[in-house]
TrEMBL record, chain B:
Protein name: DUF2487 family protein
Domain of life: Bacteria
One Pfam family in the UniProt entry: DUF2487
InterPro entries: DUF2487 (IPR019615)
Amino acid sequence: MSKQPVSRRQFLNYTLMGVGGFMAAGMLMPMVRFAIDPVLAEGAAGEFQTTNQKVDELTSTPVRVDFSYEQQDAWYTSEVTETAWVYKDENGEVVALSPICKHLGCTVNWEGDNHKNQFYCPCHGGLYEKNGNNVPGTPPTAPLDKYPTKVKDGFLQLGKPEPQTIA
Amino acid sequence: MNWNGKDVESYKQQKEYIDTAIMPLAPVSFGAEMKEAASQYEFIQLLTMLLEKQFKGRTLLLPPFSYQSKKREEDKIAALNSWSEELREAEFKHIFYFTSDSGWKLVEDKLDGTLIWVPSVPLEHMEPSYKYSLIEEQAKQFINIIAHKWQQ
């Protein structure tokens, strides 16, 4: 019997330790996973949506950029399409403006109805400067919202539109 | 504006700016034309949704006027004219009807409002991206028609 390297007591100890270890790990793993989950998720989802507009191709003339993503609202999943007017300002910075009129929410157009160098709202004749500031004397009372922008692999990414303050 | 609580609330506050009603006309039938009617409705629904998005601040998109295809023409016209009467009372200056049912085209002059007849495109087997660009192309023409009507 002395040749046997493991005694009954040792065997039971090892087994209990092993099983206990697995149980502890089984409990701790999900906790750790939950704790670090926000760190891992950020890169994957984020708030920014990628468009198929190449940043190199942007000029000082605003162009329409459409992008769509899936939005889930309780049981209802829908594809949302959003639009931005995007151009490069004189410093070469990318500017992306929301086309939603601040008056009652129509879609504004660049140089619509022959308004040179302005955004025009066809509903009630609202006008905005190129930088999004509303032209006094027209119905809108605030500048167009601005999208935060990012560049990824040469493509433009847009976040959630934020209100602008008059510069 | 859409036909929901939130938009109707802003309609009530900004009534003087919202003078245009858009109403889809949707035939319903369970016979041979059932699929065609459903597919037309799908198309008209997407189109009017897009127009509402474009002209949110001046238009109210109403629930569709649905009717049985087999009903007599005179009854349909009377039912629709009763709607336009109520819309005029509610101070809508412009009324647009959108439909793919060619029956309306023949009786256009008996209606109070602008009838826009669009031959529908079967969308059921289309790629989503292609579908949206097609609807957008169509909508562009109607954007001009509506903007033109406003300027008159």
